[in-house]
Amino acid sequence: MSNVLVIVESDGSGPKAAALPGITAGQQLAAATGGQLHLLVLGASPDAAAQALASGGYGASAVHAIAGAELEPFTAEAWTDAVVAAVRELGVTAFGGTASSTLREVVPRAAAVLDAPIVTEITGVTGADAFTREISAGRAIATLKVSHAPFGFTARASDFAPAEPGSPATTVSALSAGSVSRRGATVVGVEKTQSARPALTEADVVVSGGRGMREGANFKVLEELTDLLGGALGASRAATDAGMVPADLQVGQTGKVVAPNLYFAVAISGAIQHLAGMKGSKTIVAINKDPEAPIFQVADYGLVAKWEDAVPQLVELVRAHKGG
Amino acid sequence: MKILVTVKRIPDPDESLKFAGNAIDTSSSKWVANAFDEYAVETALRMAEHIGNKDRLAEVIVCSVCPKDKRQHVTQFLAMGADRGVIVDADETAMDSQTVAKLVAEVFRREGCDLLVSGKLSQDSEGNEVAQRAAGLLDLPQASFAATLRWDRGANALTVGREVDDGVETKTIPLPAVVSVDLRIVLPHSVKNGATADDHKYSDGARLASLRGITMAKRKKVDVHTPAALGVTPSSHVAVAGVTAPEKRAAGQIVDSAQTLVNKLITEAKVL
Ligand SMILES: Cc1cc2nc3c(=O)[nH]c(=O)nc-3n(C[C@H](O)[C@H](O)[C@H](O)COP(=O)(O)OP(=O)(O)OC[C@H]3O[C@@H](n4cnc5c(N)ncnc54)[C@H](O)[C@@H]3O)c2cc1C
Ligand SMILES: Nc1ncnc2c1ncn2[C@@H]1O[C@H](COP(=O)(O)O)[C@@H](O)[C@H]1O
């Protein structure tokens, strides 16, 4: 048996959009191992989400649900108990999902308990036990082979298309996790960044600003451009550290990795840690007043200008284009 | 209170990578401390020091799995202010993260520590797993990706602001526990230890070693263990089959105006 288990984060009624690339990685891995794909949903009442997954099919042979009050809100401690129980009960070869902040906490912890290796942030599945991933801020691509079952994986969302429903529907089975505990941890709350815009990692267009924007209020003009294009707002570390915009907008090695159709880097110098998060974008536009800025080396189109001049002009030109 | 901080050496990320055959050639690399571990040590020191008072609220022990003669990074952290060091003498580049985590967990147990502080990520291998693994092996609560931390000494607990995908999660964990730190933990107001004034403004980033610190570092104790003495057999279940340079992007063009840019995005790139 060489089945693959994908942990699917749900929004209560179905899979979160962010979970879908992880399912795709699971499908590819199951195809490579010749095994089945199993999906796992966790929560206080995961049934609705599990049903939605089962009727969508997603190429899975089975959907499993583990219910437990301790599983909501999410904690790595309680989720690990449930994931470890599921991996053991189902005897799967591989377990994982999208490299979200949730699974980046759970998969390593569960792997430790299972004495298992993991491959994190995979960008491709090249065999039943082989994966590609980026290292050293995207300056190298490693091919890794695992030699142990089970093993864990997390998949980089920008490298796997979201899985789509439509394959034959399947059924839901309830699994028991045995004892599940938060180990005394409590989640006081989550302060969510409110935004009507698409998620950074799912947007077709990303407009990012850097230190050269100087202050948060100046992002307004970038937001105008973003909204005209139906995109998401991003930022460099310098801009997030300075509190110009919320930290979850950071693009880069330690922020979000994005690969939109169109990426604007405005007043961003182009440090390797930033490039690691956006160099997979299809078209890159850089606007910087310094003609020597390294960002111009990866940009398809570079405009040497101050954002104060260039961005308002862009907004007007794009508005005219969209309107006409 | 004993705080164990894991610290790793990495090839200098500012040097360009050298590829040799199917691997990265680090034979002539300068080895430096992983940036996230500088932040981890800074976090522990901010917890330990009662600013404006001589009391130390905690002992800070830095722990590295590395060849014992490659301990420059450990010395650097002792100079920065850590109290002592523990080295597990082994070639960490030949073991997987589970082995590193087992060694760290065993040091934590033997030292009877109350808190493990790790960096969130190795800048070179980018596993993002050792801290979470150690928490699992020790069966302790964890708070990964910490951007803020408040130590409630009365309750013997930490309240951590964790950077998650869609915002900031606030999580309270009882000690003993494991924390991994993100970039913003070294901003001026990120760490509060309940003794130093809450509005104390630390300088931005990890502190540099002082001259006195560098002299003192030589006298600080560093224990060296072997993996065998810790009861761990190093192994690796993840092998690097090859490493290649990413494809270079084709050269782009500099445009002369916003108007030209928009025209090209419409007609050439066809993205507008
Ligand atoms: C461990 C580690 C992890 C990191 N992770 C990340 C990460 O995930 N993401 C990230 O982004 N960084 C990351 N960094 C930081 C990175 O190294 C850079 O410091 C950062 O990206 C710089 O941000 P910036 O380009 O906005 O600022 P700067 O490098 O200061 O560049 C500002 C740019 O703005 C231009 N400018 C100034 N004024 C104007 C104007 N009026 N009009 C037009 N242009 C103007 C300047 O010419 C300059 O090029 C990390 C660093 C470390 C050590
Ligand atoms: N060889 C090592 N010795 C000590 N600590 C390590 C070692 N490798 C990793 N770590 C710690 O684990 C953190 C996360 O690393 P990683 O899981 O490799 O991305 C690092 O920031 C270090 O604090």
What topology does this entry show?
The complex is a heterodimer of chains A (324) and B (272).
Chain A: E1 4-7, H1 20-33, E2 37-43, H2 47-56, E3 62-67, H3 76-90, E4 94-98, H4 101-113, E5 118-125, E6 130-135, E7 140-146, E8 151-155, E9 172-174, E10 186-192, E11 205-209, H5 219-228, E12 232-235, H6 237-241, E13 262-266, H7 272-275, E14 283-288, E15 301-304, H8 307-323
Parallel strand pairs in A: 1-2, 1-4, 2-3, 3-9, 4-8, 5-8, 11-12, 11-13, 13-14, 14-15
Antiparallel strand pairs in A: 5-6, 6-7
Chain B: E1 2-6, E2 9-11, E3 19-20, E4 23-24, E5 31-33, H1 35-48, E6 59-66, H2 72-80, E7 84-89, H3 97-111, E8 115-119, H4 130-138, E9 142-152, E10 157-164, E11 167-174, E12 177-181, E13 191-192, H5 211-217, E14 222-225, E15 238-244, E16 253-255, H6 258-267
Parallel strand pairs in B: 1-6, 1-8, 6-7, 7-14, 8-12, 9-12, 9-13
Antiparallel strand pairs in B: 2-5, 3-4, 9-10, 10-11
Helix pairs in contact in B: 2-5, 3-4
Bound molecules: flavin-adenine dinucleotide (FAD) and adenosine monophosphate (AMP).
